[in-house]
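Weekend entry, working from home. Most of the wet-lab plans are on hold until the incubator is repaired, so I used the time to fold the two sequences that have been sitting in the queue since the last round of cloning. Logging both here for the record. First:
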Amino acid sequence: MKKLFIGIGTACLLLSLGESCSRSETAAKGKKAEALKYQLVSPKQEAIETTLRLPAQLLPFEAVSIYPRITGYVKKIPVDVGTEVKKGQILMELEAPDIEQDDIAAHEKYFDALSSYNERKDQYSRLLKTAETQGAVSPNDLQYAHSKMQSDSAMCNSMKASWMAKESIKAYLIVRAPFDGTITQRNIHPGALVVVGSKSDGKPMLELQEVAKLRLQVNVPETFVTQLKTGQEISFISDAVPGKSFTGVVARQANSLDEKFRSEIVEIDVTNTDKVLMPGMYAEILLTLKGHQNACVVPQSAVITSTEKKYVIKVEDQKAKLIDVTSANENKGIIEIFGNIKAGDSIVAKANEDIKQDQKIN
């Protein structure tokens, strides 16, 4: 009798466990069925206007590091840091006695050769005139005089070229500004010896920059490069000058994408006559994007970005279809997309990677 009670108790326990498992499976299936109910939205074909903020940096419009082109001693430096100079203005004077002596010697040799040539030229002219009288001058003498004149002419031209070369080298003793600008570095003083090709400390003698006009350089992502045009006016701000907005004009585009960052270098010309901005400052571009008229607009939550691709989930005949898309402008929770999507399609509004291809969607 006792064994009978134990058997009945065991059977009841197993029955209870079976009913409990059955209820758990039913609840799980109910939850699973409930999870497949997603809110659907229909894309709209319209453009999204938005303002894109991109980091940028201000650069001098022109900049040059001035190193010695000839070995010599610094004689005079009439400029210093902050000096504004004009194109052609003297920045530095060097002295090199050996260079100056070589120039004088080359000059003397040229004038000696010129004197010899002029003498030979006069002799030939006289002989040529005398030869007008038949038999007065032999043809051989006339030919010899002509050859000597040509030889002296070649020597004269050679000496002149040598002298002009020495003059060019001597001209390096005077350093002039290649453009209008401001001296931003001075690393040399009168009396110092400068050696051509020497960059032992990595510093130039002088650094000249044009700061009245600046270049604002920015890397524009691939998605937005087609929305920039040469001549377009761009606004930007800088933390170094709070509370003030500046403008510039798109002047140059690389027309090539950086393979690593998938962006294009764009340069914006900025007028800086008041010298408020400085080269090296960081700025932030405020780029107004008008959007794409042929784009479809969906909630940002509908777009899934995985490590492999970007896609949305389109519902056809209650089945999920993973559609690859590319995106563009976004603003206030909505985003432009391009792909095998059109206005009126059914898209999962809040998509996730758990939804698989051809999975049934209620």
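Second, folded right after the first finished:
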Amino acid sequence: MKNIDLITIDGTRGEGGGQILRSSLTLSLATGKPFRITGIRAGRSKPGLGRQHLTAVRAAKEVGGAKVMGDEIGSTDLTFVPRGVTAGDYKFAVGTAGSATLVLQTVLPALLTAEGPSNLVLEGGTHNRAAPPYEFIEQAYLPLINRMGPQVVAELKRPGFEPAGGGCFTVSVKPAVKLKPLEICDPGEILERSIRAVVAHLDHGIGVKEFNVVRKRLDWLDLEVKVESAAAAICPGNVILVTARREHATEVTTGFGRLGAPAAKVGEEAAREMQHYLSSDAAIGRRLADQIMLPLALAGGGKFTTQPLSNHARTQAETIARFLPVTVEVEEKDRHLYEVTIKSA
């Protein structure tokens, strides 16, 4: 790989985790620009590539026909040289409870404008604390992607909880010639609200307690208790999903069951996050903000209102600027509301 003009990325910048690597992979695939990243997850207790990150690297390698150096567990340096995105049928398996949804978000943007349709099978964690759960992808992220021109449909086959994972979902992609910019500044009226507790091989009463905590905190007392059993999951697990579908965007907040966390605490986490979102007048939530920023940058523009930006979002903006001739401008409207504008430089 000598004499190649590489974009150099410092993996310790910003939030310093796996996102800067995944975003660099995504942008490299979409632009054809090779890069080298150093200091991957250097500040984490286990630095370097974990299994989830390695799966994302190898997924990007396969989709982009890339030459890669440093793609091994524990590696803190990686060089990635794509040769061109190829649409097709792919299967990517994390092998642990590491997030399969983050693997999807690594390769999906490049497939949105590929020369043909693609079908993906993703296996691993679908519901864990360190990543967007499947329902967030399906109900919040993909509807915005589809408004940009492509047609992307996902289907959950089996949920995968920590620590075993074993979840599976499929995604079909009908690409667009070019992505269309979006402007999402007004959230609009709430069209639908829902609270859904999911339990796998655990007491049904856990979900009931979580549901009631959320219902009371949000004053959504008209909703009937809805608890689902995820019998297909290979290990015990629990998640509560709180959804507000509005005219122009959807927000999904979550609480994840885990050892040492009472059901009331899990429900309170999901309810508090939704309450903060609804009280902010933001069109999209904090997590969706950093995830939709990259597709909008690939579209060449966009605008949205959101809550105060996370470190993930700020890192995302910095990484985008290394690969694309766009600027990401952030204007504080008030303490709880920010306007993000993405435009060609």
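Plan for Monday: verify the second prediction. The mean pLDDT is 94.
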